[in-house]
Write a sequence for this structure.
């Protein structure tokens, strides 16, 4: 996790991020202070459940979206790291050598595959924001967008042994979904997804059948629930078993039946990140998962 000292919704991402707030409710200083507090509280909640969190500070004023590290790197079983090409120029400044050095020091890292050079050719793939990875079935579910280039996706899938599932999705106004991880979340025993937002009927059916064949229960979300970040959750392993972490915004928008279904296999943990959600991302975007063996 990254704790920002100068958080602010990024003006360079406003055009294509339909989840980002157009109007800010308070001053930049107030927003930054609230975001700092929310990350601190999120850290406390996660660690109280037995989650090991590496918390890094960002005191730069040039990286307003640094609170979302899952977009610039991901880690994978077998000691592999991927570093990604980012669409917004100021987001490229988020990549940090000290974070990579920490991972090398604390975990077994054998290979680093750096795709960031693709930025020179205007080719982007924004990590586990652009891709929702099914680690069990080895599928990379990816919404078509300027932040998820098919060429880069094919390279990632070849390197990391995933099958690409590329599809179109849009909101009620017809605006393309900017990141896959606001549309769907895959846990061990269930999937949260809004099928109505997948615009291609054949792809919609294929995706749902693929997910059902994996044995997971499908929790169908509405387009309205997606705007409340209900699709932006993540499963983590706590000291007493599986947790499914969502924002308080998302939790309040879930139905009682949806909450009950999630709680059957994972403890649902809501965390307030309402200020950070002004930037168009939520709690899942804030967590870069570590899938490496500790030293």
């Amino acid at each position: 996790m990254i704790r920002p000292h100068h958080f602010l919704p990024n003006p360079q991402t406003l055009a294509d991020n339909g989840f980002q707030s157009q109007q800010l409710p308070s001053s930049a200083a107030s927003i930054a202070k609230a975001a700092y507090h929310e990350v601190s509280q999120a850290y406390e909640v996660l660690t109280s459940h037995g989650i090991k969190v590496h918390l890094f500070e960002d005191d730069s004023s040039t990286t307003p979206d640094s609170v979302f590290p899952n977009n610039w790197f991901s880690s994978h079983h077998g000691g592999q790291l991927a570093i990604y090409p980012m669409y917004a120029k100021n987001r490229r400044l988020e990549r940090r050598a000290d974070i990579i050095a920490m991972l090398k020091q604390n975990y077994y890292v054998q290979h680093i595959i750096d795709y960031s050079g693709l930025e020179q050719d205007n080719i982007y793939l924004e990590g586990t924001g652009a891709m929702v990875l099914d680690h069990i079935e080895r599928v990379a579910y990816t919404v078509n967008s300027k932040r998820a280039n098919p060429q880069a996706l094919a390279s990632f899938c070849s390197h990391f042994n995933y099958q690409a599932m590329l599809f179109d999705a849009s909101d009620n106004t017809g605006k393309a979904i900017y990141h896959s991880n606001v549309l769907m979340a895959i846990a061990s025993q269930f999937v949260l997804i809004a099928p109505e937002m997948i615009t291609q009927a054949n792809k919609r059916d294929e995706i749902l059948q693929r997910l059902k064949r994996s044995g997971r229960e499908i929790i169908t979300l509405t387009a309205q629930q997606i705007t409340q970040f209900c699709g932006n959750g993540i499963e983590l392993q706590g000291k007493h078993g599986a947790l499914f972490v969502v924002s308080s915004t998302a939790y309040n928008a879930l139905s009682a039946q949806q909450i009950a279904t999630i709680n059957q296999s994972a403890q649902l943990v809501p965390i307030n990140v309402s200020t950070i959600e002004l930037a168009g991302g939520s709690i899942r975007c804030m967590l870069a998962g570590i899938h490496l063996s500790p030293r």
Residues 28-48 form the longest helix (21 residues). The chain has a mean pLDDT of 96. The longest strand covers residues 241-247. The chain is about 25% helix and 20% strand.
